[in-house]
Amino acid sequence: MKTARQTRTLPPIFKIPSSPPSEKGMSLEEAVDYALSAEGSGFRKRLAMEAGRASGLSLAQAGDLAEGIEMFHHASLIFDDLPAMDDASERRGRACLHRVAGEGVSILAALALVNRAYTLCWKVAADFPAHSHAASRLVDLCIGELGLLTGQARDLSYSREKGPDEVRAIAGLKTGALLRLTILLPAILGGVSSHDRLLLFRVADAWGLAYQGMDDFSDMMGEAFPTGKTGNRDEKLDRPNLVLALGADQAAAAVSAALREAEENLETLGLRWGGLAEFHALLCQKEAEVCRALDAA
User: Fold this and answer.
1) Residue 223: which pLDDT band, with cuts at 50, 70 and 90?
2) Is the four-CA dihedral 79, 81, 84, 85 of positive or negative sign?
3) Which residues does residue 91 pair with via DSSP β-bridges, in sequence order?
4) Helix, strand, coil content of the chain in percent (nearest 5)
5) Structural domains of the chain in order of their starting residue, each with its CATH number
6) Does the pTM exceed 0.85?
7) How distant, in Å, are the alpha carbons of 9, 129, 135 from that of 62?
């Protein structure tokens, strides 16, 4: 978990010179600090650390990748919350960045985080020249026009008539893409076999659908399942939501099926990847919490 104080320990290359405040009184440096100090679950960061360990990376290498991937995630949340996207007011239990810093500085802060993320990832990739090209291709596939960016574009153009297949596809391009990057980037740099990478891909994809499905339930339940962010946005903005597309029962079944698929692939991976079981258990626990909230609603 990162705090504003911790951001000051970053290498000098990441220090942002003092800048004038925005129209809302927050400088670029303060906006980046505000974004990084948000208290999330740290799921992706810890997952990247474990994937790095299992892939044979050093603690420092895994840590840099984990920080970079977390910064990609932070940046995506800033963009998601903007008025042109979800027009959210709350994220992780406090005001969204654009609500306190203004849209212009928020966009610049997100771009600063993307730049930091690339820098950290390429720093590690330079240690593995034999695998750096494949690693760069993966980042492009997950973050670029074939991944997260297209997912967001399809999110914005979504309409209910496109149906549940489009909802699944968007989840794969957004939530799934970040999870694929989190697990597969360390694996590629560590020279993990193509067989294991395929299984890891399947795990990440299944987790992505399950994670997004549970987030969709949370959005629909509002105060019955508080998440620290603005709720009921999907129905209001006609955004992709598995519950709205399938109904609660079928959406719950889809989440359960995705988790079963992930578990089957984890079992095939074997002991080397046994540390991923902790993260699977966390998702199963979240599923149980969502089910309890549904029963109580």
Assistant:
1) low
2) positive
3) 94
4) 75, 0, 25
5) 22-127 (1.10.600.10), 128-296 (1.10.600.10)
6) yes
7) 18, 16, 14
